[in-house]
Amino acid sequence: MTRRYSEKETAIFAGVMELMRRGEDLYAIKAADIAAAAGIGKGTLYNYFASKEEIILQTLIYNLHTELERVTAQVNEAGTFIEKCRIALAFVESGERNRNSIIRYIFLGNAGEDAQALVLEGMQAIRKEKERLTDCFSRAVACGAQEGLFAPCADLAYISQVFISALMGFAQCICQEAGHCSEDEVERYRQNACRIIIKALQ
């Protein structure tokens, strides 16, 4: 994580996350909405953040870090290579279906011209998670090699590219079929992603 957050800041983040859970549009909410959801005064928000946009982006960065921390721990603890892949795919699927995910906020250009510095900060936060993800992918590959699915691979850049390509391809498939994709079709996409990863590592 880029820095440690105070108890009050995490309470503000929890307020934003509560608004997200209610299905609120992050681009339409007001600072007063965030303050009410966090159970604090509106003026208190600006003791910690310069703008509503900064509050939202810092919330998404914080959530990205905590979610990746949780998911990578689950992947590392999973017993088989396929189980590890499926946990990663489930994380991608949940993020793709969430219109308020950090990826959508940063890369769909909805932050506005005044938030470009915040956009860059968000991209830097994602890059800082690369080491965590690379380690997680490498552990998964070691597990797959032990299972005899493919030979051991020590090329971390290649491993990361294989996983990221497969995960992005999976996300693209379910994004294109948003609202029209049956569970059987999603399962087929999951299985295809696992096959793609295994094939690329053989």
UniProtKB/TrEMBL annotation:
A molecular function GO annotation: transcription cis-regulatory region binding
UniProt DNA-binding residue ranges: 30-49
Location of the HTH tetR-type domain: 5-67
UniProt keyword list: DNA-binding, Transcription, Transcription regulation
Highest taxon listed in the record's lineage: Bacteria
Any coiled-coil regions, as ranges: none
PROSITE patterns found in the cross-reference section: HTH_TETR_2
InterPro entries linked to this entry: Homeodomain-like_sf, HTH-type_TetR-like_transc_reg, HTH_TetR
Keyword DNA-binding belongs to the record: yes
Tagged with keyword Lyase: no
Protein name, per record: TetR/AcrR family transcriptional regulator
